[in-house]
Design a protein that fits this description.
Elements lengths: L2 H20 L37 E7 L4 H14 L6 E7 L9 H11 L4 E6 L3 H7 L19 H4 L6 E5 L3 E3 L3 H5 L9 E3 L1 E2 L10 H5 L1 H4 L9 E2 L3 E5 H7 L1 H14 L8 H8 L4 E2 L28 E3 L6 H6 L7 H5 L14
Parallel strand pairs: 1-2, 1-4, 2-3, 6-10
Antiparallel strand pairs: 4-9, 5-11, 6-9, 7-8
Helix pairs in contact: 10-11
Keywords: Glycosyltransferase, Signal, Transferase
InterPro entries: Glyco_trans_8, Glycosyltrans_8_dom-fam, Nucleotide-diphossugar_trans
Pathway: Glycan metabolism; pectin biosynthesis
Length: 352
């Protein structure tokens, strides 16, 4: 290769890297939160150490996805977790990122962005190794954002996270907490129950599946003997050891494979979860998932809180608070999310 050709190649590479890096917005550094002396916390976890994932001092394990499209939400969610935790220095975050090449950001760029805003955070980024497999199992749903393979990563935490991680709190990227996540993580999971989440038995459960599903005794009998209720998979406590023993990922995939042949549902990754777990989970107080704040999946209209206490706000649905704020059309509750927004320049966040 000639010198001029080599120089051209280096320029093209540098330009590509610059475009990729420029695609990620800049975020402010978050305040540092320390363990409470009154909470009898375990020792702080070392930052920048992936081996800390197996540390016996990890008080709570949190799993989230990490990608450029929802990074702003993830950063706000992490800040809210740390701000309200009694033992913030003893929380370990597990971030699952896309393993496929992205024009917007590499996994390393995402990791560096998180580290820049949270220098003392104990976390690890995992490539979603099953992404290609999942892409082949996904059927189109009513909203394109629900068809991203990373949206199904919650079904693969048992194989993605180290075997030493037994219990983990899974959070979507469009949540903020207003309470100590340790209380959620301590939810009792009796017997061989592997999933805990708030249940909503007043919801129309039949709406989550097609008329053809309910008309088929062979299919609808999947819920026989169960008091099957809707639950939202954006906030869950998972016992991964029990999940692995029961082979739940394979069971979810079986329903996804059937969906490819016979249309039995319309809504992304939720129905397979319901087919496997509805009526078989540990119930969590509704205050831990004030969901639906993003509105419906078609128009994203403003919605208010459900009755009762609030420990977690969840902007599930089409409308995301950062998009509505940027567009100058926020919903009233988006102001709560804005307090945790780390995007530069930001409207400011009260110091701790």
């Amino acid at each position: 290769m000639s010198r001029s050709a080599l120089q051209l190649l280096l320029l093209v590479f540098a330009a590509g890297a610059a475009v990729s890096s420029a695609a990620l917005p800049r975020y402010r550094e978050a305040p540092h939160f320390t363990n409470s002396a009154a909470a009898q916390c375990p020792p702080p976890l070392p930052p920048s150490c992936a081996d800390a994932a197996c540390s016996p001092h990890a008080a709570v394990h949190v799993a989230m996805t990490l990608d450029a499209s929802y990074l702003r939400g993830t950063m706000a969610a992490v800040l809210s977790v740390l701000r309200h935790a009694s033992c913030p220095e003893s929380i370990f975050f597990h971030f699952i990122s896309s393993s496929a090449p992205s024009p917007r950001a590499t996994a390393e760029e995402l990791r560096a962005t998180v580290r820049a805003s949270f220098p003392s955070l104990a976390f690890r980024v995992y490539p979603f190794a099953d992404e290609a497999r999942v892409a082949g199992l996904i059927s189109t749903s009513i909203r394109g954002a629900l068809d991203r393979p990373l949206n199904y990563a919650r079904s693969y935490l048992a194989s993605t996270l180290p075997p030493c991680v037994r219990r983990v709190v899974y959070l979507d990227s469009d949540v903020v907490l207003t309470d100590d996540i340790a209380s959620l993580a301590a939810t009792p999971l009796l017997s061989e129950t592997a999933v805990a989440a708030p249940e909503y038995c007043g919801a129309n459960f039949t709406a989550y599946f097609t008329p053809g599903f309910w008309a088929s005794p062979a299919l609808s009998s999947a819920f026989a003997g169960r008091r099957a209720c809707y639950f939202n998979t954006g906030v869950m406590v998972l016992d991964l050891a029990r999940w692995r023993r029961a082979g739940y990922t394979a069971r979810i995939e079986e329903w996804m494979e059937l969906q490819k042949r016979v249309r039995i549902y319309e809504l992304g990754s939720l129905p397979p979860f319901l087919l496997v777990f509805a009526g078989r989970i540990a119930a969590v107080d509704h205050r831990w998932n004030q969901h639906g704040l993003g509105g419906d999946n078609y128009r994203g209209l403003c919605r208010g809180l459900h009755a009762g206490a609030v420990s977690l706000l969840h902007w599930s649905g089409k409308g995301k608070p950062w998009d509505r704020l940027d567009a100058g059309r926020p919903c009233p509750l988006d102001a709560v999310w804005a307090k945790y927004d780390l995007l530069r320049p930001a409207a400011g966040i009260e110091s701790s």
